[in-house]
Amino acid sequence: MKTVCIYCASSELIRKSFFLATDELAKNLVAAGYQIAYGGGSRGLMGQLAESTLQSGGKIIGVIPRFMCEEEWNHNGLSELILVDTMHERKAMLAQMADAVVALPGGCGTMEELMEIITWKKLGIFTKPIVILNIEGYFDELLLMLKKAVSENFMRPEHQSMWQVVDRSDKVVEAITTALQWNSADRRWAVM
Ligand code: AMP
Fold first, then answer.
1. Does residue 43 have its Cβ closer than 6 Å to ligand 1?
2. 110 lines ligand 1 (CB under 6 A)
3. Residue 88: CB partners within 8 Å, gap ≥ 6?
4. How far is the centre of ligand 1, averaged over its atoms, from the C-alpha of 8 (Å)?
5. Is residue 45 within 8 Å of residue 24, measured between CB atoms?
6. 73 lines ligand 1 (CB under 6 A)
7. Domains of the chain with bracketed CATH
8. Tens digit of pLDDT for each residue in 23-75?
């Protein structure tokens, strides 16, 4: 079974449309036969992702650092919960499990995870599709910054094919299946 790793917000205090997009994404991925891996949290979009996946009969695996479990931030009903020691271990394990990565709206944690996986793809140590789910333009400024990084020669134009941007949850599966193939030799573009 193929695994989609999802990065998303832990905040509860965000627009309803972000929760609806998360619900739809979970249902679409389950219907397409994917299992989901994520950070294992119970709040915000993380909690919504878990609930919607389980309700639609899908499998969802959480990977969470022990200190978060001690704070009881983990979801209790997941198909599987993997405990790790550090945030770095969590991110490495999620990336290793992933056949594709999707970023839903989120705060600094989600943005950091997204920038890290793009960085790893640039370095050829992660080669799978990365889909940015830009619900209601949430990521517009971040995408503009990435464009600026290219126009200022911090990255090459070729690097922009490392990720795809979609504006609706029902476009994610197609984005994953049609993503440009990337491989470790593409790290040659990393040298500017
Ligand atoms: P953020 O986008 O800042 O809400 O952070 C979401 C990401 O940060 C998650 O994918 C986790 O890596 C981590 N994180 C932050 N807060 C929590 C939480 N309450 N429970 C689980 N993970 C969290």
1. yes
2. yes
3. none
4. 7
5. no
6. yes
7. 3-189 (3.40.50.450)
8. 999 999 999 999 999 999 999 999 999 999 999 999 999 999 999 999 999 99
